[in-house]
TrEMBL record, chain A:
This is Sugar ABC transporter permease. GO terms for cellular component: plasma membrane. One of its GO terms (biological process) is transmembrane transport. The chain crosses the membrane at residues 12-31, 76-96, 108-129, 159-179, 217-238, 265-289. Coiled coil: none annotated. Keywords: Cell membrane, Membrane, Transmembrane, Transmembrane helix, Transport. Pfam families: BPD_transp_1 (PF00528). It is a multi-pass membrane protein. Belongs to the binding-protein-dependent transport system permease family. The keyword Hydrolase does not apply. Residues 70-286 form the ABC transmembrane type-1 domain. It is found in: Cell membrane.
Length: 298, 289
């Protein structure tokens, strides 16, 4: 049994272990990625497909609906970064202090929204943003003397609704990321800062903030991706992929609409390639700004 | 420590504690609110949702269990609901079991051996995380059609079996174990595969717990991919099934609201039991950057 012997040898075993990944990598990553690129240069019909060069891309440049989708996604990403990095970080610092009791309870509750399916949370929020006077958001806005709104029918309030859902779902998760980052900071550094007479703010600015950097970069990276590829929140909030004047349309929503609903796969793949390029550029710039590459050179 | 204890007694400190804890109490109330409102609504007729939204109404006398008895009564709607529930359970259990085993063995191979393409492979694992799934979605959809896996559970499960983040987590965990164990087992005559199953796998139980729960949550709540693959209503998973109850033309809120609340239940129970492992698994990538 020569085969048996080879199969059991220490030289061959590692390859046997990683084979599933290699297969999955080629079938479910390399091949689809290449196909996405090639399909974006084609007009995909039911039976035959035609090579049309950059026609899909030039069409995208002039496509108003696509511009709206990109603007929506970029705006959403930008505001989620503004809302979902500094605040969870501050909450984590506060949670980590001696000022908070029953930490476990708050952590569990704040994490809970991430457990619920988008179908359920989207439905609940759609009902809260209803245009009727009994909707929670209208109760709050009329309490503040701002009157009532048709929340899901106007651009700014539609975006606000999406952001509120995002904050509801991810504040706790991001806070946990920062908390685990804080745990890895050596307490001796704070003691040293205390001896030097540092104020609370100085300790935050010169000890906490720099040492949280790996965590911040991580959260930033996943937030950029999550923000740009958001789709389901909008899909649930408007009970489908169409919103009035496309106020809730995102890049992936447009990809879905073109590729699945209108069966125009080539054009949809061009949308996907644009999404990939935008995401990679943003992340690359962000990694350079954060000095991730520099650190590796040292 | 002693110093802190005495300080916590000062009035100033106590006010700080009240403010700090109060802040999280309020934040938690805001977070719980939508689910609480949904729970209240599930005890009232679905038509109320359309008229009044999630209006908070604590009047017990107007509440009843009608939605839940309807859900459990065995009528056509409830049969559909429990079929979706069962589908979700099957898909979740199968995909979690397979994903964990496959990712564990891949990570084991990447951690415990030195071989030619090891670093390249690990770089590739990390690189696959850099492309949003949505871009691959349409080609994958065509691929699944070509493989004749459309409208099958296999089609839903197969593309997620080698999750890069799961491999990454297992690798982090396994690299903390002493490699001498392998040599000791080899001397005792254990072959490479038995070592991975009988010696190292039991040691990796906490990693299995963390990743298992995260995968289970992901699978239980997955929408986008199952929505593409599954076509027949009898194959739907719970989220997709619930989603079909919502149409622009009319909503079946009675089943939806009770079904939603009942659908959160398994995840909530798992979370309450294993919440430490979930947090460990989730934050593993964040600290190392």
């Amino acid at each position: 049994m020569k085969f048996r012997k080879i199969f059991y040898s220490q030289k061959v075993a590692p390859y046997v272990f990683v084979v599933p990944f290699i297969l999955s990598f080629f079938f479910f990553w390399v091949y689809p990625l290449i196909t996405a690129f090639t399909m974006s240069f084609q007009d995909i019909g039911a039976i035959t497909s035609e090579w049309i060069g950059f026609a899909n891309y030039t069409k995208l440049l002039k496509d108003n609906v696509f511009h709206i989708a990109v603007m929506n996604s970029v705006k959403y990403m930008f505001f989620t970064l503004v809302l979902l990095i500094p605040f969870p970080m501050l909450f984590a610092v506060l949670m980590d202090s001696h000022l908070v009791k029953a930490k476990g309870v708050w952590k569990a509750i704040l994490y809970m929204p991430a457990l619920t399916s988008v179908v359920i949370s989207g439905t609940l929020f759609r009902l809260m943003f209803t245009e009727y006077t009994t909707g929670q958001m209208n109760i709050i806005s009329s309490f503040l003397g701002l009157g009532t709104y048709k929340w899901l029918k106007m651009g700014w309030s539609g975006m606000l609704a999406l952001l509120i859902v995002a904050c509801w779902r991810w504040t706790g998760v991001n806070m946990l990321y920062f908390l685990s980052g804080l745990k890895s900071i050596d307490t001796a550094l704070y003691e040293a800062a205390d001896i030097d007479g540092a104020s609370g703010w100085q300790k935050f600015r010169y000890v906490t903030l720099p040492l949280l950097k790996p965590t911040t970069v991580y959260v930033l990276t996943i937030s950029v991706y999550a923000g740009l590829s958001m789709f389901l929140e909008s899909y649930m909030l408007w009970a489908g992929n169409s919103s009035p004047n496309n106020i809730g349309l995102t890049i992936v929503g447009y990809l879905y609409k073109r590729g699945i609903e209108k069966n125009d796969m080539g054009y949809a793949c061009a949308v996907g390639v644009v999404l990939l390029v935008v995401a990679l550029i943003i992340n690359f710039v962000q990694l350079i700004f954060n000095g991730t590459f520099k650190k590796e050179e040292q | 420590m002693a110093k802190q204890k005495t300080m916590s007694g000062t009035p100033q400190r106590r006010v700080g504690t009240i403010l700090g804890t109060g802040f999280f109490l309020i934040l938690s109330l805001i977070i719980v609110f939508p689910v609480f409102a949904g729970l209240l609504a599930s005890f009232r007729p679905g038509t109320q949702l359309i008229r009044r939204g999630l209006a908070i109404d604590l009047d017990i006398s107007t509440m009843n269990l009608d939605n839940y008895t309807y859900l459990f009564s065995g009528n056509a709607d409830s049969q559909k609901y429990f079929m979706w529930y069962k589908n979700s359970l099957v898909i979740t259990i199968v995909s979690v079991t397979l994903t964990l085993l496959i990712c564990y063995f891949v990570a084991y191979g990447l951690t415990m051996y030195d071989f030619k393409f090891k670093n390249l492979l690990f770089t590739i694992v990390l690189a696959t995380m850099m492309v949003p799934f949505e871009i691959l979605m349409l080609p994958l959809y065509k691929e699944i059609i070509a493989f004749k896996l459309i409208d099958t559970y296999t089609g839903v499960i197969i593309i997620g079996l080698c999750g890069a983040s799961t491999i990454f987590f297992f690798k982090q965990y396994l690299s903390g174990l002493p490699k001498d164990l392998l040599d000791a087992a080899r001397i005792d005559g254990c072959n490479e595969y038995s070592i991975s199953v009988r010696i190292i796998l039991p040691l990796a139980k906490p990693a299995f717990a963390s990743m298992g729960i995260l995968c289970a949550m992901g699978s239980w709540n997955a929408i986008l991919w199952p929505l593409l693959v599954l076509k027949g209503a009898e194959k739907f998973t719970l989220p997709i099934g619930l989603n079909t109850l919502l149409t622009p033309y009319g909503n079946n809120y009675d089943v939806l609201i009770a079904g939603s609340m009942f659908g959160i239940l398994p995840i909530l129970v798992i979370f309450l039991i294993f919440n430490r492992y979930i947090i460990d698994g989730m934050t593993a990538g964040a600290v190392k950057g």
